Amino acid sequence: MHRVPIAVVTAAVLCTAACSSVTEDTSDGGDGTRFAASSIDWNLDGADRYHRLATYPVVANAPDGEPADTETVAEISTVSADGNTMIYTDATAKRVGFVDISNPAEPRGLGTLSLAELGSADDQPTSVIAHGEYVLVVVDTTAGDFAHPSGRVDVVRIGDRSRVRSIDLGGQPDSIAISADGSFAAIAMENQRDEEFTPPGGDEGDLPQPPTGFVSVVDLVGEPDAWQPRRVEIDVEQARKAGLDTPEDLEPEYVTIASDGRIAVSLQENNGIAIIDGPTGDLVGVFSTGTVSLDGVDTVEDGAISLTGSITDVPREPDAIGWIDDKHLAAANEGDWKGGTRGWSVFDVTTGEVVWDARTSFEYLATRTGLHNEGRAEAKGTEPEGLAITEIDGTPVALVASERSNFVAVYDVSDPAAPAFRQILPTTPGPEGILPIPDRGLLAISSETDDAEAGVRATISLYGFGERYADDGGVAFPTVVSGDVDGVPIGWGALGALSPDPDDANRLYTITDNAYGPSRLLGVDVSATPAVIDTQQAITENGEPVSLDVEGISARGDGGFALAVEGEDGAGNELVQVAADGTVEERIALPADIAAGLGSQGLEGVAVEGDSVWVAVQRELDSDPKGIARIGRYTPSSGGAGSWEWFGYQLEATDIDGDWIGLSEIMVHDGALYVLERDKLNGPDIAVKGIYRVDIPTEPGVSDAQADPPGPPQNPRARPGSRSAGHERLGPGEGRGNDRRRQRQAVRRHRQRRPRRRQR
């Protein structure tokens, strides 16, 4: 087996542009092991890719005095004419937000405009678009009365946020677009269905549920007080002839306008697209977006990433659409009540024919990058919802957002019949709005999922394209991908642990925790950029795959592994020894009194040192002083049961309500223990995420839960478990004085080292 020392691992993980990419065919390791290889060259020059500049939590833009846990989101966005003020809808909080992005690396909240000030507390914004000195705010005023939909457009002056005009739309609106010459706006009037209503002869949420939808065209000639709406109907019989679902109740979802003024509107629930001449309001055509059958996708929500399922004749039901050119239209096939095909398509609008379809490729992007959402396997998978078309240096580019797997994929669509994948951009949960700002080379992605309790807030992510933004951007995503075997990527995600290979400086091992089962050992080639998961091995016991909540892994010198398994309670925590082929060799229980003192946070890390094994316990035992976690050492015995001894570890302190500090990982290297210490916070609230070096104790530890465990060595005056001269902070996270200087120096040293490419 190939293994690696810790210092070289760190160098490999931090290596970026100078490392090579793996694009070779699947290969055999010589011992029968089949290595998967990356099918995509993920590496782009800084001049040819987007760079993440900032992630702005919209809760920071909430009104003064609003409780911090109030749900607030960002959905659809627009930007002022000068490109410096971003405006977004927040339907949850029933307001519109303003953000200064003049410095995209440091966005600054400018406050919000409540719709209660413009109308009713029940009004919800559905879309926004800037036009000159104004922003048009599309407002749904239906307030749950689906049988009597209503809505309006508020024309708001951006400078002082005063409303200068309100235009009644005669129905419930959704999206808005403005023509290239600025002469008119088109609004999708959805008149959406009530998902809890059962129509005669149908099921709950079915169509038809009148009134039918339409398109409103607002002429923008002159000053706002002269603007007038025109109602454009979509012919029912033409829709029926085109094969649309329930054509008597059409539900326009999304509008986009071609350079020549033609309006394309997606009819999501009806599985179709209509083309309208904007200036005249004439219906040019209607076509069905058809169905898709796929093999090789995950269709069962069973906790396993199993790309072996199929979907048959599923309607595309597109949401967002965008003109690539005057002939070709791209569509994100999110799906609604009957469909969703996990990808996106390109249509020839003159014939309604599909000229290209993503098939499984969009969902496989999520799988390769660890973004697969198992909880949506039985539904619509990646659920592509948002889509925008922009132009970069003369090249047409499609941006497609996965609402459920939380990314935006970037494609070169110079040839609409053969889009070329270029880049994947991670987002926070629920990317909804995609806003290219081509004059500044920027991209803003607004996310609608907000979970204050989990510390995951809705955000606006800002990206900049090209070399001018490279210095402000961080490490390129992804840093780890999985390789393909026979065209199918290895599924991964929720990795609970990491270990170097002591024999191969270019290899790591990791393992899935109980979020995905059964448990699998994954091999990682870190000589490539990004690193490639190239092998997988199921954990088995008595010949059957098993699911373990593995929180720590350490590769042994004989090719096997030691696993730290965290149970649902104390008794479920155990040290598990596994052979190189994944077979469980031995389950080693913790001493009964130690197990009894554990809560729901138990074993988190494991490290092999010769015949002994070290484990890290995440938090204090019930019987130990607050702030003292335990590190254990297990020594096997040839004559029977092995022995446990325990040492104290002083955790950092926190004064944040609801927070706690714990250990997350442990490793042995060069005569010392390295531990990862962290708080439980996410995002901008993070305070402690650090790696510490601790000298290996020379004195014996205690054997039971009642005795006070000794602390680190070299400081006999320190209280048990306290910091000492043998305790040094090395990693990122909260630090002070020399600790911070040591941290920065260590990172610089690691970045200067280059790993050797693994020879197969």
From TrEMBL:
Domain of life: Bacteria
Cross-referenced InterPro entries: Haem_d1_sf, Mesenchyme-surface_protein, Phytase-like_dom, WD40/YVTN_repeat-like_dom_sf
Domain Phytase-like: 491-705
Bias type Basic residues, positions: 741-760
Region (Disordered): 699-760
Biased composition regions of type Basic and acidic residues, renumbered to the chain: 725-740
Pfam families per UniProt: Phytase-like
Protein name: Phytase-like domain-containing protein
